[in-house]
Amino acid sequence: MQLTRKEVFYTGLALLAMFFGAGNLIFPPVLGQQAGEHLWIAMFGFIVTGVGLPLMGVTAVAKAGGDLEYLANRVHPLFSKVITTIVVLCIGPLLAIPRTAATTYEVAVVPFLGKASGLSLAVTSVVFFTVVLLFVLRGSKLIDDVGKILTPLLILFLTIVIIKGVFYPQGSIGAAQFELPFSKGFLEGYNTMDALASVIFGMVIVNALQDKGVKDKQVIAKVTITAGIIAAVGLSVIYLGLAYIGATTGNSFTGDNPGQMLSFLTTALLGSLGKVVIAIAMTLACLTTAIGLVACCGSFFSRLSNNRISYNTICCMTVILSTLLANMGLAKILEVSVPLLVTVYPIIIVLVILALCHNLFRGNRMVYVTSIIGASLVVLAGLVEMIAAKFGVNLHIQNVLAIMPWQEHGLGWVTPTLFMAVFGLFLAPKTKQQN
Strand runs (DSSP E) across 134-202, as ranges? Predict the structure, then answer.
């Protein structure tokens, strides 16, 4: 069965909707404001990790015909369970799900209250996740229908904001607030968590195509990759537009909260109506995202426990934990996410690149194992250093890591990974090839 161009295009829009997590919109304006005159260099780095890596993840899944668990199993079954669990926790109750409630609070509640407070955040979180849990447990398709309508409307609204901001900027681009703009943008792109989600979303598209009757693996791979390109183009345009507005209009924003900045920008460009519309749109978008992620966690952990823990129980536990963490506030959630993301992201990047190059080294397991070891040693050492620093202990690990090429750019793991990959190639003839 062959799909029409229209069907392929709609598949791309569906993938764009999956990646278009409402929480991701808060990062480009802040990066644009801080990058100033280095806006485009910083955004190039952001696009690499915030758009390029997700596209690579979707491509890897499409070519391999399996999700993250399948790809990670090429290293070792135990590694597969561990890394998949960590990724689901990141895009679930530890980071992404609490962020949806915190973002809703900052964009849709604080601008109308005038100031933030612990009580209002707690009330917002409880109400938000009560609604999420009701939809998840009822399994209603209403939220899917809302999402299909909401995503195009949100994109349309953002397009209007971007056009107004580009042609009628409220200020001029200022001086940069940091050095190494590419590195800043590259690491900031981790916050989208889309590369982590791509190896899961890609399989959703593959399964959807199979349900439509598409059986040819090459056709499925081609359509999925094309859909990924469509989603990548859409994300890039939106991110670049929001960053430019942040670099111009955002200069008059005096706060430090990325969620409140987005509300400020829409209000500055479209008036009070803009503030109301972005509040409603972001609330519904965050609800849609949270419901999908809670359901994903429920399915994964229920299956991981061999159904000893029910889907409903997992969903309830996920919502309770997310509610507690959401009350840390958006700024604290983003702060806590940094050590976890800079540790997990390089491992996923290596896994995706290996999957894309699978045939070049004949899919030998040893290359997978040694490469992952190379990346893991560096990022885990950095994680230990960051944790120790929180307790006022200096282990001087950074002094050792500093000798790694590109460490100042957050890419110190690249050289050890390449070295270990070559080492794995030498060992490869002694080990078996895998599919």
Answer: none
Task: Say if residue 297 is in the same domain as residue 418.
Answer: no
Give 239-288 pLDDT, tens digit per residue: 999 999 999 987 778 777 788 888 888 888 888 888 898 888 888 888 88
AA letter at 199 = V
Q: Is 423 exposed, middle or buried (0-12, 13-18, 19+ CB in 10 A)?
A: middle
Same domain, 153 and 65: yes
| C-alpha triplet 127, 129, 130: angle, nearest 5° | 60
Q: Are 80 and 72 in contact (CB under 8 A)?
A: yes
404, 271: one domain: no
Residues 361 and 324 in one domain: no
Burial class (CB in 10 A: 0-12, 13-18, 19+), 236: middle
291 touches 283 (CB < 8 A): no
Tell whether 183 is covered by a domain: yes
We report the CATH number of the domain holding residue 196 as: 1.20.1740.10
Task: Kindly report, residue by residue over 199-252, the tens digit of the pLDDT.
Answer: 888 887 888 888 788 888 888 889 989 999 999 999 999 999 999 999 998 777
How many CB atoms are closer than 10 A to CB 215?
A: 10
Shared domain for 203 and 310, answered yes or no, is yes
How far apart, in Å, are the Cα atoms of 153 and each of 6, 104, 146, 268, 334?
A: 20, 17, 11, 20, 27
Statement to judge: residues 325 and 388 lie in one domain: no
SS3 433: strand
Based on the fold, state whether residues 182 and 103 are members of the same structural domain.
yes
What span, in angstroms and rounded, lies between the C-alpha atoms of 217 and 69? 19
Distance CA(230)–CA(9), nearest Å, equals 7
Q: Which residue range is the domain that position 402 belongs to?
A: 357-435
Tokens representing residue 14 in the block: 């569906």
How many domains in the chain? 2
